[in-house]
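Notes from hallway chat w/ T.B., transcribed later so I don't forget. T.B. wanted the structure written out for a chain they're using in a teaching module, and asked if we could keep both sequence and structure tokens in one place. Agreed to drop them here.
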Amino acid sequence: MHQVAKGKSWFFCMELHIGVDSHAGLVQSAVVTAANVHDKHLLPEPLHGEELKVYGDCAYAGQQELIASKAPAALDCTNERVRKIDGVPEEGQRLRNRKRSKVRAQVEHVVGVVK
């Protein structure tokens, strides 16, 4: 566990990194770390190698080679960081992230049950 601040309060926290089958909603793997470990360092742990698509939040952006090395048949569907052109976010990236987030939302229900 690691001590973190949220607002003006301090907590001892842990993070749960899970691999979930998005169709069945079943947990395939789980890794628990202290809260100060960045998500991208544990990306290979929840992957088993037979995935067809890998969904993740912006913390996993730019990890295409790592995903390809662990799960060669997987399509990288991680959310992208939205780039702003002249202060306006690019609409195409926002729409792609929104579609991907709908799949990730189904997985977040599993996280709620595990907690």
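Follow-up for T.B.: The helical segments are 64-70, 91-114. Might be a good example for the class.
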